[in-house]
Design brief:
Elements lengths: L1 E5 L4 H12 L4 E5 H4 L3 H10 L2 H4 L5 H5 L2 H5 L3 H10 L8 E3 L5 E3 L3 H8 L2
Amino acid sequence: MTRLYGIPNCDTMKKACKWLDEHAVPYEFHDYKKLGIDESSLRDWMNKVDWEILLNRRGTMWRKLSQEQRDNINAEKALLLMMEAPSIIKRPVLITEDGRIEVGFSLNKYKELFKT
């Protein structure tokens, strides 16, 4: 089953969910706020997508970090940060049944992934 990771009150998440619903794509929603994210999943994602794509540098959580934390970020520090505060992960993260990963919502990418 396709899985969609994120937080429910995010506008981009709402767009992705709406698109999936309108195109009858079954999916499970994983709410970071309630369920967090495990290290194994993050490491798997980081093997498929650069960690810098996963890390949301535009959000509130990023701005709350000290300048020193932002300046010294690397893959391992980003992993720990994303585990501690999953809302700093760019949303949504979509994992298809065959293991492909799409970070963020793109109408064209979703059409391509689901052949609609």
